[in-house]
Design goal:
- The complex is a heterodimer of chains A (about 150) and B (about 160).
- Chain A has three helices and eleven strands, in the order αβββββββαββββα.
- Chain A has about 150 residues and is α+β, with helices and mostly antiparallel strands.
- In chain A, strand 6 and strand 7 (about 100-110) form a beta hairpin.
- Chain A starts with a helix and ends with a helix.
- In chain A, about 25% of the residues are buried.
- Chain B has one domain: Immunoglobulin-like, CATH 2.60.40.
- Helices cover about 20% and strands about 45% of the residues of chain B.
- Chain B has three helices and eleven strands; from the N terminus they run αβββββββαββββα.
- Chain B is globular and about 75 Å long.
- Classes of the chains: A alpha+beta (about 150), B alpha+beta (about 160).
- The interface of A and B includes residues 71, 88 and 94 of A.
């Protein structure tokens, strides 16, 4: 009697649970070159306390197809030592410029210093894993420094 | 001889063509309401009580602005600059996802920034007519929707 009730209940759970499950995201440790990515980031500082960041993506390499190009800014400080809230997360629109996808953002420099651009995909090497996504992170701080060094010259 | 006669007109034409390439499009904020522009959209703000909010724009009909060229999320500076105008603390074009027959854009942002935020629905066409080097935009201030979301939530400790 009990098992007769248990089987339909388990079946219902098996159907409902995957629908409620959250996808797991993994940040990829492999380099731009290892992921066969081709992109270029440039930062322009007009000395107003704001900067313009331009990302030009030529090839999504092993991440094809990418479903989002996000701008993420974690909070300055961790939340009770358990990780960081996000001060900004936004999916950026891409414009086609020749054979490249281009995204632009104009932002306060103090925010840009903590910013990263995430290329997000559900596929790695053309294979899709259910409820899994991967991201390649592009920290902006490095490009801010490069822009500062160019300005000094 | 023939070539010499063409030098001046060719030069003039080149200058005009080059100038047109460098010209900036002028943008005009539309004073007409959402209803007058026949726009159908919905904005929802979720306050997480962490000092951050999530803003969701659901766009059903682009109305008289069809086709939209851009959905821009912008935050003007708190204070005017030395020239009396406002710099932009953030300006970014939003990607949208299709959900049924609607386009949806999401932004997760610090509440103190969201209070100054605006979404601009931009188009080069008004009532189906395009004017060269001109764009129009409908402004959606987020502050109103923040109030609706219930600003009483206190940041989590």
């Amino acid at each position: 009697m009990t098992s007769k009730r248990l089987v339909p209940a388990l079946l219902i759970l098996a159907v409902v649970l995957p629908g409620l499950a959250w996808a797991l995201g993994f940040e990829l440790g492999e380099s731009k070159e290892e992921l066969k990515l081709k992109y270029d980031v440039s930062v322009t500082d007009p000395k107003t306390g704001r900067v313009t960041i331009v990302v030009k993506i030529e090839d999504y390499g092993r991440l094809k197809p990418v479903y989002a190009v996000d701008l993420s800014i974690p909070a300055k400080e961790s939340h009770n030592g358990r990780g960081h809230y996000m001060d900004l997360v936004v999916s950026m629109a891409l414009q086609k410029e020749g054979d490249k996808d281009v995204a632009r953002v104009h932002i306060l420099r103090e925010l840009a210093e903590r910013a990263s651009i995430q290329l997000k995909t559900g596929h790695l090497d053309g294979k899709q894993s259910p409820l899994t996504w991967y991201s390649h992170s592009i920290p902006i701080a490095k490009y801010l420094k490069e822009s500062d060094e160019k300005d000094k010259k | 001889m023939f070539n010499r006669k063409l030098h001046l007109p060719l030069l003039a034409f080149s200058v005009i063509a080059l100038a047109a390439c460098f010209a900036w499009a002028e943008g005009f904020g539309l004073g007409e309401s959402k209803e007058e522009l026949e726009l159908k959209y919905d904005v929802k703000v979720t306050d997480h009580g962490t000092g951050r909010v999530t803003i969701v724009l659901t766009l059903e009909d682009e109305g008289r602005l069809t086709p939209l060229t851009d959905i821009q999320f912008g935050i003007p500076a708190e204070k005017p600059n030395e020239r009396g105008s406002y710099y932009s603390d953030l300006s970014v074009s939003l990607a949208t996802r299709k959900e049924g027959n609607k386009r949806v854009a999401r932004v997760h942002v610090l509440k103190e920034l969201a209070e100054r935020a605006e979404i601009h629905l931009s188009t080069r066409h008004l009532d189906g007519k395009a004017e060269p080097l001109t764009y129009y935009f409908h402004e959606i201030p987020i502050a109103k929707y923040l109030k609706e979301s219930g600003q009483s939530k206190k940041p989590a400790k």
